[in-house]
Structures are given as C-alpha cells and as structure tokens.
Amino acid sequence: MKALNSLACNDSCYSKPQSIFRHLTSDEIQKLLSFKETFQFRRGNVIYTEGSRITGCYCISSGIIKIYKTGSDGKEQIIRFAKAAELIGFRSVFNNEAACTTAQVLEDSIICYIPGDLMVQFVKINGNFAMDLLQLACKELGEANSYITDIAQKTVRERLAEVLLNLKDNFGLNQVQVLQISLTREELSNIVGTATESVIRLLSEFKDDQIIELQGRQIRILNTAALTKIANL
Amino acid sequence: MKALNSLACNDSCYSKPQSIFRHLTSDEIQKLLSFKETFQFRRGNVIYTEGSRITGCYCISSGIIKIYKTGSDGKEQIIRFAKAAELIGFRSVFNNEAACTTAQVLEDSIICYIPGDLMVQFVKINGNFAMDLLQLACKELGEANSYITDIAQKTVRERLAEVLLNLKDNFGLNQVQVLQISLTREELSNIVGTATESVIRLLSEFKDDQIIELQGRQIRILNTAALTKIANL
DNA sequence: CGTGTGATTGACGCCTGTCAACGTCTGTGG
DNA sequence: CCACAGACGTTGACAGGCGTCAATCACACG
Q1: How do residues B81-109 score in pLDDT, each as one tens digit?
Q2: Which of A2, A86, B35, B206 is such that its CA lies 20 to 30 A from the CA of A16?
Q3: Binary contact (A72, B141; C-beta < 8 A)
Q4: Which bases of chain D come closer than 7 Å to a protein CB?
Q5: DSSP single-letter state for residue A89
Q6: How far apart, in whole angstroms, are the C-alpha atoms of residue B126 and residue B130?
Q7: From CA A228, how far away is CA A177, in angstroms rounded?
Q8: Is B27 helix (H, G, I), strand (E, B) or coil?
Q9: In sequence order, what are the residues at sequence separation of 6 or more whose Cβ sits closer than 8 angstroms to the Cβ of residue A27?
Q10: Is A189 left (phi over 0), alpha (psi -120 to 50) or beta?
C-alpha cells in the first residue's frame, strides 16, 4: 500500500453522476477533498480485516475489491465485489462496530479513505446525501436478501450459472466475450458457496455443453441464454 | 385487517428509547401522529406482497410478522421476523422499488402505516433520524451477510441449532423454557433453508439427545450449551 | 363424521463434500 | 540453466447428508 498525492485520485469519487457524493455542496466537496487520503493498493493487499476497527470508509477510484466473511471453519464466503466509484466500509462506520468482513484487492486499485466522522457529519447536515446513502444501504440489503434465497434454495449448478451471469453484468465481456474479471476456481467456489472441485466439474460440464470456453482463468461466455435457463431465473 | 382509531396504537412506535422515531422533534412527532394510520391484522393476513408497490413503511406496535421471499420454485425463504417497535418496508420506500419480500402476520398484530413521503421528508430535515435509519439498514445488512455465510457453509444440522438459538434471543423463553414464538415445521424449514422432513428429523434427534423437548409447536430448550456447540458458533 | 392441514416416519437415490493423487505453471535459488 | 517448491487446476473414488416421494398418523373444524 502506498500513499499518493490526492490529485492521483481522479474525480470518480465525487463528481460522476452515479457517485455517492454527487449531492454534496461545493463547500462540502472542498472539505471532503481536504480530508480524504488516497492510497494505491496491489493485488492481495488487505484494506481492512474482519474484526478490526475501521475509522472511515473507502471509495474505490479504480481496481476491483472482494469483500468476504470468514466462516467458522475458516472458509471464505465472498459477499460481493466493489469496483470504481463504489463505497465500502460504511456499515462499520455508521454502526460504530468492528468490520464484519474483510476487503482484499483483486486487481491493483487506487482507493480514497474518507474519515468516518466526516461521513456522519455530511449525513447529518445534508439530507440528500443521507438519502443517497440510505438508498445504497437498502440496495445492498435487497441484493443480500436475494442471495440468501438463492443459496438456500438453489442447487450448486443453478447458483454457478447465476454467478457467471452476475459477473457478466457487473464486469462485462471484452470483444471476444471473455469475462472481464479474473478469479481463481477457489474464489468462484467462495462466491457460489461450494467446494472448489464442484466448481471445476460444473465449469467442465458447461464447457462440454458449449455454453462457455475455458482458458486458464479466462471464461468466455458463448451462450447467455443457456446460462439463464440453467440459473432458473 | 381492520382500521383502528390511532389512539389504539400505544406509543411504542415513537416514544420508547429504542424506537426508530426517538430523535424526531415534537413538531415532527405531531406530524407523524396526524399522518399515520393504525390497523389491526390477524394471523395469516398479508401486509404487503412481493412485487407490489408499497407507499409507506409499517411500524409494528404488537404482534409478530414474518418477512419472506418466494424462490423460483415457489418455496418461501424467511428472511427475518419483526416484532413490536420494529420497522418494515423501508427498503422499498427509500429505493422507490416494488417490495422484494412479502410480510405476513404470524401473531395478531397492531401496526401503524407511515406514508413514505413523510419518511423521506424526515430523513432530509432531521439528520439524527437519518442516522438512525442508516444504522437500522446497516444492522440488517450485517445480519444478512452473516446469514449468507452460514447458509453457504454450514450443514442443515448446524443451521437449525443456530436458528433455535436466534429465536431464543429474539423472542425469549417462558418460565418453563418454552420458545415464545410458534412456528410450523414448514416455517422452521423455510428459515433454515431445507426440507420440512429434514427439520422434523433433526428436531427428533435433538429431542433424543435431551437438548430440547417437543409438544406440538412448543419447543422447550433444555440445553443451550449443546445447541451452541452444534451450531458451531 | 368427513375433510383438510400439519407432523412423522421410512425408503431411496442423487447431489455434493471430502480425500487423494497427479498434472501444470510460475518464480526462486543454487 | 536446471531443480525444486508452492500455488493452482483437474480428475477419480467414495460416502453420506439431505431432498424427494409416499404412506400413515394426529388433530381441528365445519
């Protein structure tokens, strides 16, 4: 992890229309700029660890982060990913609790740290910002609820298909239909909630059925419709 | 469902220290009182249905509500319960989306309806209220994340033990250690995320091991320590 | 008393987790 | 330049947890 001059963070944190900070006034933006710190992280770096106290939120300027919980037997469960312009760590800040997840860098990232008391201050004085944060929390809550239902009721096969579709929606495909996120088989299994071997076997089946192509960690999606059908959406 | 004179709702909605409305000013409380409507619901009544538009939140004055999602094969997945002084429906209101869950009455309830635009208005003008709501959403988010990890990684046996412990913490035991919430075996299975028959078999095993006693839907918890051990917490 | 809902038990088999062995690739150090 | 270690991926064997189907029982209610 390396501290950077704040200017190194492009303005994706606060000026883009989908930014969580879009409703701050220009005075508040100035304050944000003067307090935030920008860091560079490399693959594998841990931003915060489950159980640790965190004193602020992190806004992703670039890169990809995985957010996971560690189960009682030590196995990771990936809860979600975060990419550019997304905010992480706010749950612990607002609840004033230790982090309940670990945030680890999947692809080299530039990340802005925003002190928690500043976030709280903005919530209290800027109703529109409060609404945006509330909406963000509620959006994640809705996604979590769907996730619970899926994991509880669907087979591993269905869930893997759904995960591939979600990754496609979140990270897109390149010109040759390859998923624009690189995950190990183990990480895939930690999203689906299954054993690594099961993921490998199912991916092979999908390949045999010409639904996907595999080349190391590159996954080329050939037949979205088939995946949708398998996912039982 | 029967409309009641507002006075029929005791003041648990807004005056108790743990109420979500505890930080409203007296002016705002007056406004809340003039806009809220109070209804009586009976077991089985549906407060709102997945997919429907809801125009406000509901604050439980008394009774117990189950919140569930319906999976693609029609099976219910119970996400959580709500009891006195708890707020439901706020996710849809703030995100301005259709409800993603169904709320159904388990035990006869008195419930206050609060128009959504009033909630939004309070969030925007009262920073402390906004913080409380944000904390509520974040608290549920943290619980949902734990739930995801448990369902993904634990066995049905572990999850059932954990569910019994959670029910004990949420609804308590009476003088003779009987859980103070009455659920069908199917509802239990819809929390755990398993088949009804599996719940029945595991409950019988717990009974054989003298961990619980069963009498119809009454579950008497004899050995909390054993449950904790089984739950692998 | 018939009907319906919920609870229970047994039989059966498949999905899926676990264990083990082996192959592949990359980076490191001698 | 090669050997080796270590991480990751793959495949096979195997068992058992758990879902499904079916039959029966218990109980409440009109």
Answers
A1: 999 999 999 999 999 999 999 999 999 99
A2: A2
A3: no
A4: 8-13, 17-22
A5: S
A6: 6
A7: 16
A8: helix
A9: none
A10: alpha
